[in-house]
Amino acid sequence: MKVIIHGGFFSESDQSHEVKTAKQESLKEIVKRTFEYLQYHSAFDTAAFAVSLLEDDELYNAGTGSQIQSDGVIRMSAAIMDGKTEKMSGVINIQDVKNPIFVAKALMKEDDRVLGGSGAKKYATEHGFENFSTEIPKRREEYQAKLNNGGKGTVGCVVIDKNGKLAVATSTGGKGFEIPGRISDSATVAGNYANAFCAVSCTGVGEDIVSNATAAKIVTRVTDGMSLQNAFEKTFEELKTIDGFAGAIAIDKDGNSYHQDSYPTMVFASFDGENLETFN
Ligand code: ASP
């Protein structure tokens, strides 16, 4: 059993030492809580659980603390994929729900599994998800000052459970200041993908991740026999042709995990019950 989580990018230039330490502590705490949860739950349930904890922590650009779009509105996206069933479900540009990942998870039982905008919100309301503002004062101040955090958010989790099943979940508040209607990679197969061989969650500039098809490519390469490391190296090499900005975490069916970013530093933590690894 193993859990690896990420909390997007950390930039030395626009974030303080205190924020860095807070993110390290928060990731360690969340990865440990998630590992405990994994003892009694499937990879699928655990991936959603981890992402909901990250969404609830306002340090990250997902759920509470999401960035604000150019028209002053927060729109969030999230997706989950079960490596066992090879099915994905998600929400794109949903407003005013506490945990977009739980709405994405609820959609797994539907025939229509990815909903956008007002349809996603209507579904959430009809299925008991209360109206909840995910705005925090800091994001509004950044928005008023027209500060753009530049696409360094997003949270994600990849996990392998005691039965060797894999799952991935990813959630984002987007890039910040985007044109209303813009679609993030996070609820697409480029940003969030898993099967029986490998699970990958991405962060970075959604347009680059979609152009590179990052998560789907890494998973396909591992499925076809490449090692995790080789699959990452080839995929990130290809990202260079578009000067792409991305980071990803992954786990394979043998419990190997890997992470790579094109521009340091993606913030992440992993835990297998013994070894706790985190970013520096
Ligand atoms: N990938 C997200 C997006 O483009 C943002 C991020 O990961 O920082 O919407």
From TrEMBL:
Chain positions recorded as substrate binding sites: R182, I183, S184, D185, T203, G204, V205, G206
GO biological process: proteolysis
Residues annotated as the enzyme's active site: T154
Signal peptide start-end: none
Residues flagged as site, Cleavage: G153, T154
One Gene Ontology term of the molecular function aspect: hydrolase activity, acting on carbon-nitrogen (but not peptide) bonds, in linear amides
Source organism superkingdom: Bacteria
Source organism per UniProt: Chryseobacterium taichungense
Protein name: Isoaspartyl peptidase
Record's keyword terms, sorted: Autocatalytic cleavage, Hydrolase, Protease
Gene3D superfamilies: (Glycosyl)asparaginase
